[in-house]
Amino acid sequence: MFLFYWLVAIMPLEQHGLWGRPLFGTFTIVKLLGFAVFLYALGYASWKGRWPSFRSPITISVLLFIGLQLVNYLFHVADLQNFWMAYSHVISILILFISCLILLDSRRRLHWSLLVAIGAVAFVSLHVLRQWQLYRGVYGDFRPGGMLADSNYYALVAGLWIPLAFLWSMNKGRPKWERLFCFGCLTIALAGSMVASSRGGFLGLMAAFVWILWQSPHRVRNLFLAGVLVLPLLFWSSRSPLRRLTNPTESDNSAKESRLVTWRAGARMIEAH
Known about the structure:
two-stranded antiparallel ribbon; single chain; globular
């Protein structure tokens, strides 16, 4: 399992000088490690004589979606020379998905994998904060993305794990060291998300917190704690996502218009086909 935890830990380091380095084409060291994990997972399943069930609705949906993509490419493009370039990411996701189904066969393994993922997001958030510290005075509209290169991509990844870090840090049934670890990761990731200033990421994060508060038996307490954590960060940065939503610059409006144009074009493609 060390290989799997290692893979989870370095997955956000897309632009790292070592882990994100391409070996050939789009095949990076992270993908090489992912393939090694896949081989280990197949060996583990064979040794245990226990294969996961591929009959759950979610698993069937994922496999069908990826299968339709591959079949569509082969029948409508049929350019095998560029197949790997076009579908390296899709195949990587499929390999990781199957590896997770095989290797995460106990609550303990799932628990440690989630902890590693929370720590990995906090680590990449440190890169985001360092970039903001170095370059905020150089570029007026600078929005750091850390090792993920793009600030929106970073906000998407951080937004997946911030709610879980919040829940585990507030859970008194967990060990004290784990709660402190999750709280520290939560604070760092929230700060990184605020300086990344992704409006879409911020709206997604707020939706996640609303759902958490609605489901929580301690709504008032958790609302207060979430406010204490988030509100100061929203007003700390002059380029926070809230400020970009309420007082957009010319470049912010331009980015909004480009997305609307893309969505309209996509809708016309769906209507035509």
